[in-house]
Design a protein that fits this description.
The chain is α+β, with helices and mostly antiparallel strands. The chain is built from four helices and five strands, in the order αββαββααβ. β3 and β4 form a beta hairpin. α1 packs antiparallel against α3 and α2 packs antiparallel against α3. The radius of gyration is 18 Å and the shape is elongated. The N and C termini lie far apart (about 50 Å). The relative contact order is 0.20.
Length: about 130
């Protein structure tokens, strides 16, 4: 069963890093911001606000969007919470698979279950 467990574990990781868990919809386009970029954008957007700057430019999928800082911070909050939910589901899957011992249970394990609905953000309309 260990080779099967290994394959299922690899499938969990592959699903986690795919755009099934690493994407959100922005104005209908599937995009992603990695953790470091999200943290940097929160910091720089907060600095802009503290400096009296009301808008910032957000780059997503090769497109630039000039948006109010509050809109960007709210969007980043939603994406961060979504990423955290996806992370927790992935870790739960890893734990469940580690505790399965039957071949049938492992072969039938659904690595896609329990993930949250992808976040949708409408940009300036948000």
């Amino acid at each position: 069963t260990e080779p099967i467990r290994g394959r299922v574990s690899n499938n969990i990781i592959a699903y986690d890093v795919s755009d099934n868990g690493n994407a959100f919809l922005f104005n209908g386009n599937k995009v992603w911001l990695d953790k470091a970029t999200r943290v940097g954008l929160v910091n720089s957007t907060n600095l802009s606000l503290q400096s009296g700057i009301k808008t910032t430019t957000l780059w997503l999928g090769g497109q630039s969007y000039t948006l109010p800082c509050e809109v960007v911070l709210e969007a980043l909050r939603k994406v961060e919470l979504y990423a955290l939910e996806c992370y927790n589901v992935t870790e739960q899957h890893k734990q469940e698979v580690a505790n399965l011992y039957g071949e049938d249970e492992l072969l039938n394990y659904d690595v896609t279950k329990d993930y949250p609905k992808m976040v949708e953000i409408g940009g300036a309309n948000e």
